[in-house]
Amino acid sequence: MHDIVNYEHQKFHGVNYFQLLIMGCLESKQLEPVRGQLNMNEPGRGQRQTGMEGKVVLLGDSGVGKSSLSLRFCQGRFPNFHEVTIGAAFLQQTVRLRDGSQVKLHIWDTGGQERFRSMSSLYYRDAAAAILVYDCTDPSSFESVKYWVEELRTKGPSNVAMVVAANKSDAASEKKLVDVTIAKQYCEDNKMSLFETSALSGENVTQLFESISYKIAASKAAPRRPM
């Protein structure tokens, strides 16, 4: 079990949300959520700890379970009812890695409605990583993953890390309409990891965000290229 110290969930809707984003207010102390902490492994006594942070954006169609994955990871629970995300929701979680270093994740849970795609660049601006979510019972949601991969590669931040979450893996086999073999091959061809997740049961949710945390840590540790 992971240890959640504290948690706060903030939502920003419509124009006000984008005004806050453009003005940079999301980094002000006034809007900063209470920090949570996820311990992957307890560091040894006297072990040096380093702090890093990165923005993680969840992208995918409406109803694929982006909010549920975020809540399962940050609060350890599955929501009893589905609330459509309008605009985006902002969460924050600190992950402690096995070497004792810490990564603070700024998690952006975005609305999946088609009308928000025209403003998608505001979602993934300055993102260190993206989790592309599809519903394994809905083939069209997997096609949207391909859209987001192309979108991020052509318009997103350079070197943004991408992983794919095949959510609702708890569904009965006959309801799974996306061939996981094809999905895995697509991810392999595009150098992305695929996690079969269930926000309902918690399957692979921690592993999903842990993978992202290690990718962010690796990118922060990599030497910068000279200008």
Mean pLDDT: 78
What is the number of domains?
A: 1
Annotated CATH homologous superfamily: P-loop containing nucleotide triphosphate hydrolases
Radius of gyration of CA atoms, rounded to a whole number: 17 Å
Largest sheet: 8 strands, mixed
Uncertain residue segments:
1-37, 39-49
Oligomer: single chain
Helix content: 25-40%
The span between the termini is 44 Å
The assigned structural class equals: alpha/beta
What is the succession of H and E elements?
A: EHEEHEEHEHEHEH
> How would you describe the shape?
globular
Kindly report the CATH topology. Rossmann fold
Number of strands: 8
CATH architecture: 3-Layer(aba) Sandwich
Strand content of the residues, in percent? 15-25%
- Helix count? 6
CATH class: Alpha Beta
Description:
This protein has 227 residues and is of the alpha/beta class. Helices cover 30% and strands 22% of the residues. It has helices at residues 14-23, 66-75, 120-124, 139-155, 180-189, 205-221, and strands at residues 10-12, 37-39, 51-59, 88-96, 102-110, 129-135, 161-167, 193-196. The protein starts with 9 loop residues before the first strand and ends in a 6-residue tail after the last helix.
